[in-house]
Design a protein that fits this description.
Helix content: 25-40%
Structural class: alpha/beta
Strand order of the largest sheet: 2-1-3-4-5-6
Mean pLDDT: 84
Amino acid sequence: MKDDEPSREEQRTDIVEVFNPCQPNKISIPRSIPRKGVGLAKRQMELSEEWNAFEAALGMRPKVVGKDIAEIRTNVAKTRATRPPIPASDSLVINGGGYCLGDLDTEEVTSRLLSDNGPMAIVSVGYRLAPEHRWPTSLEDCVAATHWALEHFALSSDVDRTKLFVTGGSAGGQLALALSIKLIEQGITICGVAVLCPISIGPSAVPSELKHRYLALEEYSDAPLVDAKLYRTFMEANGHDDKDPYFSVLLNPTLQKFPNTYIATCGADVLRDDGYLLADALRSYGIPVKHDNYPGYPHYFWAVPGIQEISSFQSNLVAGLRLLISKA
């Protein structure tokens, strides 16, 4: 690499700032995407100034912990019970939770945000959870819920069921992608897909030519909220095969038929590279993609009350939704 040649992180910062300009009072922290090459040393985890201050105030690094899924569920339930209420006002939304956690309330704030800012009826999907119901039960439930919604609104004069949008976050983002593939294969038109911190490929299924770009799981192994240990616990409980093209959607040829897509990623997230690889794959097929990244923020940081960057996330999500609607 020449001395005056921009690094990969500099190139990516330029791309993101076009879509998501940094506010004047924000500090732009470069993502830890290394330069292309081999034999690279592990980079130090980079967190935003705001998040570092948040951890300092807490006196700890917040994480979802537990020796098994049952204990993780108990700990998450305790956290939700003591969390202050998040203001919320009055598509198809699939909740996250590593396939093992979550319910219809998990994405209520996001669902209401989309409902308030987009002319659409929102259907929040509840699916059976692993490990009691292993893969592909969650995907099958999402497919069934979509067909129910299409039939339910068949005679409605207020809802145009020919304009279907699918969205989800984290594991729900992967399910949104897999659901979209299933529906496209069934001949159902999807007008837009929006995924937040999605899983797009299992670690053992990453093609050799992409391994140098799939580094976040190692770089952010000790990340806040969701670390590598928790990620692997969820994946083992889900019981999927990484090589299943309905799980590792990057391997699925139907991805070439996707509609316009919105992607949000977090820079300090074990799933950061899943989102980047997805965006690049879709663009390589000529599919329009809007991608917002949040450097230095961990997985699903918008679920943590009090973080100022949440307002940027919500504004960008609404803008992304409106863009999808305008192109439908």
